[in-house]
Predict the structure.
Amino acid sequence: MSAFNGTNVHPSCFFLLGIPGLENAHIWISIPFCLVYVLAVLGNCTLLFIIKSDPNLHEPMFLFLSMLSVADLMLTTTTMPKILSLFWFNDREIYFEACLTQVFLIHALSNIESGIILAMAFDRYVAICNPLRHSTILTYAVIQRLGLVIVLRGLVLLGPHPFMLKWLPYCRTNIIPHTYCEFMALIKLACAPTKIYRAYSLFVAFITAGLDFVIIICSYILILRTVFRLPSNDARLKTLSTCGSHVWVILISYTPAFFSFLTHRFGHHIAPSLHIFVANIYVLVPPMVNPIIYGVKTKQIRERFLRIFTDKNT
């Protein structure tokens, strides 16, 4: 590892430390990480193929699910190849520009995923609370516009992040105690005031993921109010079952995201290894679990998946 020139405000590269305190276990940690990554790629590609090949699945819920799968694939592929290279070959070096690009992609894609999950909540709200108008409200044109707005929101609000990091001087060290480049990890290396940058990052997080989560909770309160007005328990259970997959996706996506976000800014007494491990879980586990959840709990996808294999056997 080359020495860092303290007079250079923009190092040509950074060095990723990995998971602090667990360096000797990197090779063993890489085994489940690699397995989960392969499952995430296979699962999401299979899900996209099933939705694309079956016209009966070209409904709002499944179109939003395909958007989520694309975002999941991009997010996990943005981080995992470099993490596995670090674990397997001790490849710690990452160029400055590549690091900034990774920061932008991770945060923008996370923001886009949050927006898609919100759109899926809106789909469930309309389907349950206003079922007769579901097909007229969520038309293909509306879904396309929602998708475009979600993507533009992520690109526009997170676009300043790499530029802010590029404007900062780095005269302390070029060693990042993380497995990938992350905004707050780089901010902590800067030797200049970063209060405004931190405030902007916090503001964006609250008006996007934070507000998305609040709106999702409100939509489910309205959904539950409608469900409890149904005349029979069977009708209530059947209606709630259509939301089961989405609720699991919300829990799996937002729990590690909020934990990572809060510990980075307020959890100064939490062990760095725990925080970084959870940060890796966030970019790895949801992309693997989401297609499994919808594959197991959604009848149309499950039947289409089984039909593929039965057709091959016959």
Observations:
- The chain has a mean pLDDT of 89.
